[in-house]
Amino acid sequence: MKTVTIKGRRFRLTLPESEILQAVDRIAGRMSEELADKNPLFLAILNGSFVFAADLLRRIDVAGQVSFIRLSSYSGTDSSGDVLKVIGLTEQVNGRNVVVIEDMIDSGLTMNRLTAHLSALGAADLKVAVLFMKPEALRYDVKADYVALSIPNDFVVGYGLDYDGYGRNLRDIYTLMP
Ligand code: 5GP
Ligand code: MG
Question: Which of 149, 161, 166, 168 to mutate to test the pocket of ligand 1 (most atoms within 8 A of CB)?
Fold first, then answer.
């Protein structure tokens, strides 16, 4: 059993890169067909999606525009208590076919907020590509047009995902051990 220790927590290898790439291939094939002639604007969410985005985008056979944004949430005064802030969005979204590339849909809150924001900016068509979805954790209504893999409700690192800032560079996916 291959394990890695990050800040005193042990993680074990649960999903090798080869299996991730097979899943990425599958959605890339569908995206190539469905996004042809759509002049897509791909918005990859940093930091977590950087590896997924690089693998996915190189398998999509459509010359799109690629940009990177960051999200931060802070305590605000709206009813739900927090506000999503989008950082670094310099492209016009209005009237564009936008494809969000994200690492994970967990509760779905982040994606729910982000898609609402992009719709409000006037995106003509909005699609969401996500590496992992945790169906057991889902609590919000979300768009997820292309899901590479559904995984159990456990904490994972690697392939772009971090534990407290560490482990994003690991090639495979590791799951936190009890
Ligand atoms: P949500 O808003 O859907 O509850 O959470 C989504 C965000 O939580 C993801 O973008 C990701 O940053 C983080 N997240 C959720 N589950 C995991 C996980 O298992 N590992 C890591 N590294 N981040 C996670
Ligand atoms: Mg994230």
Answer: 161
